[in-house]
# Entry
Amino acid sequence: MSNSPVRGQPKGAGRVSPKQNSAVGEQPSAKSNKAAKGASAKPASRKPADAEPNGSATSATTPATTPASAKSAGSAAARRPKSAKPESRLAMVRRARRINRELADVYPYAHPELDFRDPFELLVATVLSAQTTDLRVNQTTPALFAKYPTPEDMAAAVPEELEEVIRPTGFFRAKARSLIGLSTALRDRYDGEVPGTLKDLVTLPGVGRKTANVVLGNAFGVPGLTVDTHFGRLVRRWKWTDQEDPEKVEAEIAAIFPKSEWTMLSHRIIFHGRRVCHSRKPACGACPIAHLCPSYGEGETDPEKARKLLKYEMGGYPGQRLSPPPDYPGKPAPPLGTPAGAE
# Structure
C-alpha cells in the first residue's frame, strides 16, 4: 500500500428526488362528446380500440408479462430515468451527484490502482500505464524501482537497459525516453523532487493533464479529475457531457461537482468502468446504478449473464494491485511470471 493516504469524501446531504413534472392529459373534443351521446341510442357492436389486426384485443388493464431478466436489483429497469422530455440541466446535475453518492456506497474502498510509495513512483507508474493495464504496470515496477530508485538513477539509465525492464508495458522505447526525460528534468530543475503543481508537472516529458491530476490527487492531496478512457466513456453514457476532448470533458464535469469530490469521483467512476460498465459489453443487469442510467440496455440485461461479466473483486477475481489497501475486499494481484491459476 502507498504511504500516501487516499482521501475520503464527505457524504451527500441526502438523496434528492428528481423534479416532478405535471402531466397534462388529452382533453375530449366537442365532436367526441357528441359521439358519446349517440352511443347509448345505437348500441352497435364495435371492435375494441386496441384490437389487433386479426381481431384479438389486448386489455388495457392487463399488465404485460415481465421477463425474468428485467427483475434484477429491485427491478432497476423499471426505476431508471424516463425520457418523456429532455432532462434539464438541474435534473442532470442532481442525477449525477446521486450517482456519485451511490457509487461511494458501492465502492467505499475505491483507490488508485497503481502501486507506489512516493510521488516519483506514482509519476513513473502513471506514465507507464498508457496503453496497458495497471496490473501489468504493477507487475513491472518492482524490478524497475529496484534498479532505478531515484530520479537521479533513472536519468542516468542506459536506454536499452531501461527499455528491457519496462518492455512488458508496451511502447517501451517511447516510454523509456519519457522516463529518462522527466527524471532528468526532476534532477536538473526540481532538485530531484516531483513538483506539486499542475503548471510544473505538465512541463515534464510524457506528462499531460491526466497524469498530472493522478499525481496531484493521490500523492499531494490536491483535487483533480482523471479523465482516462473509462472516465470519458461513462460520463458520456450517463449524459453528463457529450464532449470527446479530455480537457473539455474535465471542464464540464468539474462544473457539476465540488472540487473536494474530484479525486474520489475519478476513482469511483474508473472502478465502475473496469468492473461493471465495460466498453463493449456493459453488465447492465448487475449494475447497482442501473436505475439512474439513461443508457441502460446497451449491454447485457439478464442478471445471471450480467454477473458473469463482472471483473476483479466484483467477480471474485484478484485486483490490479500487488499491494492493495487494507480495506480492499478482493485478492492481491499475482506477481509477474506467476503461472495461470496460481495465487
User: Anything to note?
Assistant: Residues 89-106 form the longest helix (18 residues).
